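Narrative summary of target 7.
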Amino acid sequence: MKKIPAHIISIITHPILMMSIGLLLCIKLDPYSFGVYDWTLRWPVVAMIAMMTFVFPLVVVFMLKKLGFIESFEMNTTKERIIPYIATSIFYLWLYITTRSNPEISSLFKSYTLGAIIIIFIIFFINNFYKISAHMAGLGGLAMMTIFLGLQISGTETWGIVAAPQYLPSLVLLVGGLAAGARLDLGAHRWHELASGFVVGIVGILVGYQIYF
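Modeled conformation, tokenized:
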């Protein structure tokens, strides 16, 4: 895999995008769980969650880069990832606390948020002595969430980018394979760091789902 495509794949599969992607899938394929019949009626919610899970963490990374706390946006060392992990976990906790009692937010998405928080804490702990892949953890969590989403809307008629939600996990796995190849090609991780990250993602969402429900 060439370096430029590998960088592009790494960017579009960045872990801080997974919450926004997960939300769009939930609200697009099952808008009734958000109290509406069309996802566009909940665009303020989409914007708010994107701000908390993507924009705010990204601003923190830019500030760290400007202040010289990290050498690059790739954050190639485990030490550089400590502050971004702490900041991201705070934003995710904030999101969960502010939405957990909101009936207009899907219960599945709330459990996904809780699972994402668990993933971040596990990665933060492991990061102290092992460079686990956050990219694969995010994709593993998204794959697990799409399985629950498919079960939730099984038998219902859906339209959109995916006609059959049961195929979503396979699609995420395909993207995960591309992301793993990109990370290996860039020398960002070794295969066992990628595999362990994917497992952590799956386990985190499973635990979050079990706790919430």
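The longest helix spans residues 43-67.
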